């Protein structure tokens, strides 16, 4: 490799980088359209990070070497002209289209995403949602892909400061006009960049292997990928100035051709062998990151084995040039298609969506990106560029407030209309209408309770009485009279918690006390969940604490337990449940196990379907066959421990082979698989009848 072939000072345009951009964006788009074909296509984002780190650092180093400093206003003004116009346009377009396409149940969340995207903090919002047990199951929004832009923008905030700090802390070399004048500052930058890389890589690996689901999105686990690009830029500058000498065989065209082919093979290996189960980013990201760095370092190639013809092919270069706009537009198109079609795109639809994305990318590049970068009245002044950027962000953020505000207004109006019915529920309200065939609506009433737009809030107000999956603790909470003559314990995961209103509603009518031991994702079982083994949850200690608490109290008369049937275990699920039940029965505590509730189809929320079909919610019903999780081991466990009584309420969730989403004006599901509190309250009398019968039978 000749010096000029790798020097950003001599050659600013790098066709191989445009080709890498094309590869990166096509991997991401292919992954989003056909994940079964390219299961690891998400690594395209990591390639983008390396490229960004390299280009931005190269720009900063050129300025620092030339002037001895870095102009932060000029830097941020350039970023604003490059990134903001197209990004803000997409946000505005998505918000406008969402009013027409998305149900209003999603408007509030969309507004949050739009604001977060406008201010480049979408990655932190998604990180918070990923560790929120109930929010983690939400369908991806049309602006979710802005998370990677947030990572880059946050990187741009502090990376120039490192270069500026090195310029201020390290004095120029002895010959300030010579080629070695930048050497002291370069040494300082090696230290700063290297420390940032190692610290971030270490934390990324820790977050991945500790099961931290937020680790995929947060900036601290991704900095090292951009920093690798920065280190590469530093090495290129050092080589260009003669400070870094490489053997001739390393820079030969034969070695560079082989290096590029090996690097691309590594990238393809990751793209086609990684999947959703790969611990990522962490160490696994090093393959695409280093592969990308090798391709950049190799520079322009020639001779036998060179990919020069492909790299310089006009379509490849154009896709690389339009990669930013293509990335911005493709994801909203996919989300809106799925919402309108009610299903994932097939091969033909994927090709059509790709074509539509390319068309929008072409238009965005031609009429937004390029003109905005070169519009002289703004480009000639950093102050005007920054002001224009602030105005664009402010406008987008202001418009982003509309979905949530409109949702609140519509919900408030509908809540007022529901007021009279909630104060005096009609006969047959909710579960009481199952005996009448579970009609969606009762005569004279067409309202759905809770409103689909507020269904997510229709859950037990238990606060930290329901511990999060990563907690090592369990919390004991008591409800009801202190001097109650009868006490029941409700034990299990979130599918035990969603029975709380039925259990406590009946208990209150009888003057009973309810004691809860609830922890999301943790069934009351001796069998270890696979997620517990993998480190993404922590159940063992909490289950031991629950067992100790239950067996040490002398006032508990019965234990009611339930769990999500879809949980997977490292050992036999039925045996694990039976083991804990046996320990309670041996301690004189009778156990009553609830069969898990059915789950609507997983490609959408039942509440969203009802919102879109509020006049005919029957369209949101689903077949009973296949509605129950195959892994529910409750009945099998009862065969192993026959002292335990099993209570099955499936006849109040499915009727004549069909599971309705609305029963007697009541929305059954508050999210993808948890039952609404309103429906559980209407189920309390039936629950009471059956638990009383079970108690009498023992």
Description:
With 698 residues, the protein is mainly α. The protein is 56% helix and 6% strand. It is built from 26 helices and eleven strands. The strands form three sheets. Strands 1, 2, 3, 4, 5, 6 and 8 form a seven-stranded mixed beta sheet that branches. It has a two-stranded antiparallel ribbon with strand order 7-9. Strand 5, helix 23 and strand 6 form a beta-alpha-beta unit. It is elongated and about 90 Å long. 48% of the residues are buried.
Radius of gyration: 30 Å
Total helical elements? 26
**Poorly predicted ranges:** 1-11
- Percent helix: 55-70%
| Residues in β-strands, percent | 5-15%
Structural class: mainly alpha
Molecular shape:
elongated
Distance between the termini: 84 Å
Mean pLDDT: 90
Count of distinct strands: 11
Largest sheet: 7 strands, mixed
Topology diagram in text:
Elements: H1 3-6, H2 15-33, H3 44-67, H4 72-101, H5 107-118, H6 122-131, H7 147-169, H8 183-209, H9 223-240, H10 248-251, H11 253-273, H12 286-298, H13 308-311, H14 314-321, H15 323-341, H16 347-374, H17 376-379, H18 382-423, E1 466-467, E2 476-479, E3 487-492, H19 494-497, H20 500-510, E4 513-519, H21 530-533, H22 540-552, E5 558-562, H23 573-586, E6 591-594, H24 606-612, E7 622-623, H25 634-640, E8 645-647, E9 658-659, E10 662-663, E11 666-667, H26 677-697
Parallel strand pairs: 1-4, 3-4, 3-5, 5-6, 6-8
Antiparallel strand pairs: 2-4, 7-9, 10-11
Helix pairs in contact: 2-3, 2-14, 2-15, 3-7, 3-9, 3-12, 4-5, 4-7, 4-15, 4-16, 4-18, 5-18, 6-7, 7-8, 8-9, 9-12, 11-12, 15-16, 20-26, 23-25
């Amino acid at each position: 490799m000749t010096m000029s072939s790798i020097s950003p000072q001599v050659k600013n345009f790098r066709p191989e980088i445009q080709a890498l951009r094309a590869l990166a964006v096509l991997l991401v788009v292919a992954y989003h359209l056909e994940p079964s074909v390219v299961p690891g296509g998400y690594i395209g984002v990591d390639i983008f990070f390396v490229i960004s780190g390299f280009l931005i650092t190269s720009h900063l180093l050129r300025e620092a070497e030339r002037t001895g400093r870095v102009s932060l206003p000029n830097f941020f003004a350039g970023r604003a002209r490059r990134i903001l116009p197209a990004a803000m346009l997409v946000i505005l377009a998505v918000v406008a289209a969402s009013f027409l396409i998305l149900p209003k149940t999603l408007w509030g969340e969309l507004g949050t995403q739009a604001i977060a995207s406008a201010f480049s903090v979408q990655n932190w919002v998604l990180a918070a949602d990923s560790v929120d047990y109930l929010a983690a199951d939400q369908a991806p929004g049309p602006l979710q892909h802005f998370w990677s832009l947030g990572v880059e923008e946050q990187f741009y905030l502090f990376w120039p400061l490192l270069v500026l700090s090195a310029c201020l802390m390290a004095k120029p070399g002895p010959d300030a006009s010579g080629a070695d004048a930048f050497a002291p500052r370069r040494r300082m930058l090696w230290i700063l960049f290297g420390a940032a890389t190692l610290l971030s890589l270490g934390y990324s690996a820790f977050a991945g292997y500790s099961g931290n689901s937020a680790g995929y999105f947060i900036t601290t686990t991704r900095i090292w990928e951009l920093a690798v690009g920065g280190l590469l830029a530093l090495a290129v500058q050092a080589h260009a100035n003669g400070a870094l000498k490489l053997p001739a065989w390393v820079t030969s065209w034969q070695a560079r051709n082989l290096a590029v082919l090996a690097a691309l093979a590594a990238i393809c290996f990751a793209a086609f062998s990684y999947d959703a189960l790969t611990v990522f980013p962490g160490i696994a990201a090093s393959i695409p990151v280093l592969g990308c760095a090798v391709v950049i370092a190799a520079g322009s190639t020639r001779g036998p084995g060179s990919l020069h013809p492909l790299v310089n092919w006009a379509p490849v270069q154009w896709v690389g040039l339009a990669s930013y706009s293509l990335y911005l537009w493709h994801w909203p198109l996919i989300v809106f298609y799925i919402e309108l079609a009610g299903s994932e795109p097939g091969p033909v639809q994927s090709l059509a969506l790709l074509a539509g994305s390319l068309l929008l990318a072409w238009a965005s590049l031609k009429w937004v990106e390029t003109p905005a970068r070169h519009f002289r009245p703004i480009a000639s002044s950093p102050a005007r560029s920054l002001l224009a950027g602030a105005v664009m962000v402010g406008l987008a953020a202001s418009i982003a407030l509309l979905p949530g505000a409109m949702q609140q207004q519509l919900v408030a109006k509908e809540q007022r209309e529901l007021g009279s019915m909630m104060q005096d529920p009609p006969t047959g309200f909710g579960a009481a209408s199952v005996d009448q065939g579970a009609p969606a609506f009762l005569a004279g009433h067409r309202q759905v309770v809770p409103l689909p737009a507020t269904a997510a809030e229709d859950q037990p107000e238990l606060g930290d009485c329901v511990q999060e999956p990563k907690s090592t603790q369990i919390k004991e909470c008591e409800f009801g009279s202190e001097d109650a003559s009868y006490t029941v314990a409700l034990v299990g995961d979130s599918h035990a918690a969603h029975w709380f209103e039925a259990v406590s509603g009946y208990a209150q009518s009888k003057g009973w006390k309810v004691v809860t031991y609830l922890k999301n994702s943790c069934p009351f079982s001796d069998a270890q969940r696979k997620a517990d083994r993998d480190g993404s949850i922590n159940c063992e200690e909490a289950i031991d604490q629950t067992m100790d608490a239950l067996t040490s109290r002398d006032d508990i008369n019965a234990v009611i337990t339930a769990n999500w049937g879809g949980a997977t275990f490292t050992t036999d699920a039925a045996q694990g449940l039976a083991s804990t039940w046996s320990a309670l029965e041996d301690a004189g505590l009778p156990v009553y196990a609830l069969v898990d509730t059915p789950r609507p189809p997983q490609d959408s929320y039942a509440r969203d379907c009802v919102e879109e079909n509020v006049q005919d919610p029957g369209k949101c019903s689903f077949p009973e066959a296949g509605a129950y999780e195959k892994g529910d081991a409750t009945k099998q466990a009862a065969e192993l421990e026959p002292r335990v009584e099993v209570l099955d309420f499936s006849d109040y969730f499915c009727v004549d082979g069909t599971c309705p989403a609305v029963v007697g004006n009541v929305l059954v599901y508050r999210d993808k698989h948890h039952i609404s509190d309103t429906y559980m309250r209407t189920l309390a009398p039936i629950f009471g009848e059956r638990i009383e019968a079970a108690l009498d039978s023992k």
